[in-house]
Structure of Endonuclease:
Amino acid sequence: MSNLSIKANEAASRYLDHRGYTVLETGWTCPAGTADIVAKDGDVIVFADVSSRDSAERGFPSESCGKKARTKRENIAIAWLAEHEDAVNEAVRFDNIALVVIGKDRAMIRHHINAFGADAASLTPEVPSIPTGADLQALPEAA
C-alpha cells in the first residue's frame, strides 16, 4: 500500500469519526480482499472503500461500482460478518470515500453514502397502479 493510500485511509477514518461514526476496523483483510474501513453509523455496519489522488489536476479518483467491484465488496462484507458473530441482524451499507490532495496536509473529501443504493430500485417490485376510470367502474359497489 502506498504512503498516499495509508494517509488517505487515516484521513477517511478521522472524517468518519468526526461525523459520529464508530470506526471498527481499518485494513481488514480476508481471501476475498481488503475492507479499507469497517464502521458503524448508528445501527448500520458500513463498509467504506477509500480511493485517493495526489493531485487536484485530474480531479477525484473514479469510484468503481461495477458488478465485479460490487461482488468483491459484498464477499468481503460476508467474510467480515461471518468472523464477527456478534454482528447479527445488522443492516449493511457500502460507502465510497474519495480524497484528492489540494495542498500540503490538505485534501478534499467526497463521501458517497450508500454507493450501491441506486441499484436497489431495480430490486424493488413494481408498485401496482391505483385503479382509475374504467377500472373503477368494474369494481363492485360497497353494500
Observations:
- The chain has four helices and five strands.
- The first helix runs from residue 3 to 18.
- Residues 34 and 77 are 10 Å apart (CA to CA).
- The two ends are 73 Å apart (CA to CA).
